[in-house]
Amino acid sequence: MLYLTIYDFNNQSVKEIVKVTARSTDTLTVVRAQDGTTAVAWTAGVFLEARIPKVVLESFLQSGTPVAIADGGTASTTAAAARTALGLGTIATQAANSVAITGGSITGITDLVVADGGTGVSTHTANAVLIGNGAGNITSVAPSTSGNVLTSNGTVWQSTAPTYVAATPITNSLSGDVTLVTAGTYYDGPSIAQGSTGTWFVSGTVVCDDSVGAGRFKAKLWDGTTIIASGYLTVAGASQPASMSLSGYLASPAANLRISVSGVTNNNALIRFNSSGNSKDSTISAYRIA
Hints:
There is one protein chain. By secondary structure, the chain is mainly beta. It has 3 domains: about 1-60, no CATH class; about 115-160, no CATH class; about 170-290, Jelly Rolls. It is about 5% helix and about 40% strand. The strands form 5 sheets. Strands 9, 10, 12, 15, 17 and 18 form a 6-stranded antiparallel sheet that branches. Strands 3-2-1-4 form a 4-stranded antiparallel sheet, with no helix packed on it. The protein is rod-shaped, with a radius of gyration of 54 Å.
């Protein structure tokens, strides 16, 4: 902003202050009668000087005078007054429903309840597993003893010692041949007494023979009620034994697990126990798996 003072050298008591608003080479566009002066009909030859008039000095920031908000200030002399003037007195005046926190930390507040996205508590046991509690405070289950696992009793989660089922095998072999007296009738071969508790994996082999000639055999692995597996076997001729293996699993067996064989072709066929000379030809084994 440029202000100029016009005066007559021979009569300096008369002067006029003008404000320059534009310039084109040596031509100035001015607003006349500024800073309390009056427009004068000047004649050629008067002086024009760039002095500092009172209006310029008054535009400078004065000590103790607040700068207006429109001029980039706060219109206040204290922080509290500035917050009020700028509408920053409370979070409610700063759009409380859309406040975005992008950094920093929050300290010194009451524990946030679950309904507000918190846990409802200040601390948890180190290395514990957090457990939901509806709208109540989140709880936790501590690791407890080394080797423990997280288990449910149907109502709550607990840290408990694991329960193992020993996979101890039960096995049994025929100690003598079994004669299949009547063709079409099943006769029990090797069997085991495992009890009715648990789930069992069972497998076994039977060796079948027919002293008359070629013959056919049917076999089933079962507990006397439920058939686990079955098969069909043919021997090529008299005293030419052949083997069949069956396996599977069954929960809560009704009775002893066994392999039963039926001679289809001839009476008096055999389940052999020692055709190989090792006395283990017809054997059954079972493992409890659950």
